[in-house]
Amino acid sequence: MLPKRSVSPEPTIRYNLPANHFLALQPSYSQTSIEFPTGELPSTSSHESNGQAPNTASLASADFEVDVRTGFLPGSKNVIRLLGKYEVWEEALDAAKGGRYIHNQPGQGLIVNGKREKEFLWRNAIDSMPVIDTADLLVSLPHLRRAHVVLTFLAHFYVHTTPTSPSSSTSSPKEPIPIPACISVPLLTVSPLLGLPPVLTYADTVLWNFLPVNPSIAPSATLNPPNEILTTFTGTKSEEQFFLISALCEIAGAEALRLMRQSLDELFLADEKALRRLTIYLKKLSNQIDKISDVTMTLMKQVDPEEFYHLIRPWFRGGDSDGPTSAGWNYLGLTENDNVEKTSSEAESSNTLGQKGKKFSGPSAGQSSLIHAIDIFLTVDHSPTVQERLEALNAVENPTQSKILVDSTPIVPPFSTSDEIQQTKPSQGPPSSHGHSSSSSPKGEATFVQRMLQYMPLPHRSFILHLSTHPTPLRPLVLHFAHSHPALALAYDGALEALRRFREKHMRVVSLFIIQQARRQPSERVRKLMGLKENPTENEFETEEKQIDINEIRGTGGSALFKFLKRCRDNTTKAMVRPNAAGYELE
Ligand code: HEM
């Protein structure tokens, strides 16, 4: 029987939410306000409440909006279109895309950096749009989510069709790009309700942007898979497939979460029978991770790499996309004080707090909670090495010299000497964080995962933090029984091998879709869609055949790409109990 929940204060406002929705339940994590989760990092409270709060270390919980059937995808239908007074946003979005029913007809909508009358007229129409009160959206969570989707797509459409100011080409500082009040005011009201920054996230492009084959019932991997994407920038099949394939990975991930949950149940018993079952679940988990990899690899056929790199990806760029010299985005329509308070978010760099230019990152599949949850379950440690911490600090001090480009990572150097850094090495402290440490970590040490956490919807962020602060005893148990139960160790390492295979394949995807495309010119067909002249001028594509240092290329999440991805892969191998038996040499 579960212990009684500790009594939390009644929320002062209640929206019409489903009875089992996390906002309608007594919270098991501490928040200052149920209605307006602030920029504060959520903390899991069950370990702080003298055993009164339930242990929600389950891998599916209404509190965390992780559905037993659909994982991180919502179990209820995504809203297709906002109606009534909010339809004006939808109409603005239709206009940007070039029409309401534009699917697979690229070239109809706005173009990144487009200087045509089309872009000019669209932005003018946005400038004269009224600021609409968001109160009526509070009727349901799916409506709030759709509002975030529509407003962030509009914000990206607006920013990326705004002509760059003349000062940006000279040595004088760049001006932050304005986001008009009709977009920024409602966006800044809706975003904290969802626990998201006011920028396009993976939740907007994937989790809340699909319909399954039969939208009236919950999606499932085999019977009712995600089938349709609601909103794209370009209307291309490539963009639809890019989002859809991520949604298919998520639904395959729901089964992985189920297996992890079952494994946890066995861990508590840990008798002979339980160890046998655990071995079976780990083997099944390995198959399921391979399924996620297989789905990921369908990207290679379904998405045109050239379209992805030149047409689609530029729309994703956030306010930090030019690295340390980014001017950021200016959310208009707020008073001086509001500007500080309302745009404050953990996702924001501390050095832009209170400033006009906000440097949020664009969306990345790294913002999906799925792989992070599997990492934590299998105890893959992604905490930075001493060397990497030093490089990160060096990058802050000498941003132009360093190869490791730091983007919006909030950097406040918490230490000054390498000795002190050494003392903070997680392996020397309690093994509580497993590389996914939460807010207790100084900001200067923010890892990729910590940064990506801030771009996940609040319940998913809380879920990952909860998992990481309540580490599973899986690895210690496997180590303990490795000699007496070699099949268990084999199954555990097998799951890690599958995760390593996923990362290997993902690197092939990144190589094709980013590295290789950055090295060549777009074809005539794609140049046309980009609104470029037929014959490129000599210096228009300086990157042609240029020797690009792959360590310099940054992802939309702002990482020094390949170095980072390789490290994620190698960290997976390091978690193995017998890496040598699997044929891996560890450094
Ligand atoms: C065309 C498809 C894709 C491209 C170009 C791509 C690109 C990238 C890039 C550039 C990063 C580095 C972080 C960043 O800067 O954002 C990254 C990280 C990541 N991506 Fe993807 N990605 C793609 C598809 C996917 C899919 C389908 C998944 C999920 C199943 C995924 C999962 C991840 C994860 C978990 C990370 C964090 C690094 C790690 O844990 O290994 N990506 N991706």
TrEMBL record:
SUPFAM superfamilies: Indolic compounds 2,3-dioxygenase-like. Residues 34-55, 340-364, 415-445 are annotated as: Disordered. GO terms for molecular function: heme binding; indoleamine 2,3-dioxygenase activity; metal ion binding. The keyword Metal-binding applies. Heme b binds at residue 506. Residues 415-425 have a biased composition (Polar residues). Keywords: Heme, Iron, Metal-binding. One of its GO terms (cellular component) is cytoplasm. Pfam families: IDO. Belongs to the indoleamine 2,3-dioxygenase family. This is Tryptophan 2,3-dioxygenase. It comes from Kwoniella dendrophila CBS 6074.
